[in-house]
Design a protein that fits this description.
By secondary structure, the chain is of the alpha+beta class. It folds into 3 domains: 99 residues, Phosphorylase Kinase, domain 1; 31 residues, no CATH class; 188 residues, HIT-like (HIT family, subunit A, 2-Layer Sandwich), CATH 3.30.428. It has a 6-stranded antiparallel β-sheet. It has a 4-stranded antiparallel β-sheet with strand order 1-2-3-6, covered by helices on one side. It has a two-stranded antiparallel ribbon with strand order 4-5. Helix 4 runs antiparallel to helix 9 and helix 6 packs antiparallel against helix 7. The structure holds 7N-methyl-8-hydroguanosine-5'-diphosphate. 7N-methyl-8-hydroguanosine-5'-diphosphate binds next to loops. 7N-methyl-8-hydroguanosine-5'-diphosphate (M7G) binds next to loops.
């Protein structure tokens, strides 16, 4: 794998250069649609040079690519977007059809729909750190059981040194990015949060609805930090988050899966809201903790998450896994 030396933390100028370049593109074309890389007109990916395919899935219709964008390390994720029911009549009326095979009552065709009905979602991380490249690389996982002592002696020192930057989270809270995407905000500094679409969701249909609620409190890293003192915050997120989703997307709470990840990738407390039935990445039992269970557990034991052994999966080349192995825990 290519050497990953640039990142936002150790090379802010490089990050700024990419941001400036994309901002300039917006101005030049006067057709701005949103944040970095989302502007129409100019293709900021035209010079992307692929180094490796990190993973792909024919079933999910996704490919994760590592490469270079203007000499900086970048990860690009391409994903074919779902077919919307509302687009069906146009797809049937305006596409061309080429017969692949016919057998009795069975036919398959190549259907070429008009380009606007055949979009891909492209997510760009640039400059990407080595940790981003690892995150998106297909890898074997191992389940780790973390005692409270393990958390203090292994996990906490590791995440204090090596976790992803949460600058993007602060940008959202300070309205420096994605402000137009905010669905709901409770500005209370203790109980408040911002609810907005997760960047995995293209917002074209609610089948794969995915929002995140980010707390205004900045000192809660993860589930491990929660105590009964946070119950009002968690209840507030649960109640108001569900109400806002009902209002904006007409989906009742009974259609939502509301949970926290342990371990998260970003150590600033946030809650995931996904549509029940959507097999969202990371919604499996080994990583997702239902918010209702979390609240109940804290009711029954104020220090539940401070004292319990918690299990979670780690990918083969995760530095944290190496630390657990070194400590003879695996
Ligand atoms: P997580 O549990 O910390 O990690 O969740 P995960 O990515 O391994 O699930 C963080 C969530 O924030 C994920 O669902 C990400 O897709 C989402 N996310 C990450 N970033 C960098 C952004 C961003 O810049 N904007 C938005 N809206 N969502 C993001």
């Amino acid at each position: 794998m290519a050497d990953i030396s640039t990142n936002r933390e150790n090379n802010p100028e490089a990050f700024d250069e990419f941001t400036q370049r994309t901002k300039k593109t917006k101005t030049n074309h006067g057709d701005e649609q949103g944040e970095n890389g989302r502007e129409s007109g100019k293709n900021v990916l035209s010079g992307f040079q692929t180094t490796t395919v990190l993973s792909d899935s024919a079933r999910e219709k996704t490919i994760f690519v590592h490469g270079k964008l203007a000499d900086q390390n970048a990860v690009v994720i391409l994903e074919k977007t779902p077919i919307r029911e509302g687009a069906l009549s146009e797809i049937f009326a305006a596409s061309t059809l080429e017969l692949d095979m016919r057998n009795d009552i069975y036919c398959t065709y190549r259907l070429r729909s008009p380009p606007h009905l055949n979009e891909m979602k492209a997510t760009v991380v640039c400059p990407a750190t080595e940790k981003h490249v690892q995150k998106y690389q297909r890898q074997e996982s191992f389940l780790v059981e973390e005692t409270t002592d393990d958390y203090q002696s292994i996990t906490l020192p590791f995440i204090q040194k090596q976790s992803f930057s949460v600058q993007w989270v602060y940008n959202i809270l300070e309205k420096k990015a994605e402000s137009e995407r905010i669905v709901f905000e409770d500005p209370d500094p203790k109980l408040g949060f911002v609810l907005l679409p997760d960047f995995k969701w293209d917002q074209k249909q609610t089948d794969n609805l995915y929002l995140i609620a980010i707390t205004h409190q900045r000192n809660i890293k993860s589930l491990r930090d929660l105590t009964s003192e946070h119950i009002p915050l968690l209840q507030n997120i649960f109640q108001k988050g569900k109400e806002a989703i009902q209002q904006h997307y007409s989906l009742p709470g009974s259609k939502l899966r509301v949970y926290l990840h342990y371990q998260p990738s970003y150590y600033h407390l946030h809650v995931h809201f996904t549509k029940l039935g959507y097999d969202a990445p990371g919604c499996g039992v080994e990583r997702a903790h239902l918010l209702t269970d979390v609240i109940q557990n804290l009711h029954s034991d104020p220090h539940y998450y401070k004292t319990r052994t918690l299990s979670f999966p780690l990918r083969a080349d995760d530095g944290l896994l190496a630390q657990f192995k070194e400590a003879g825990k695996l």
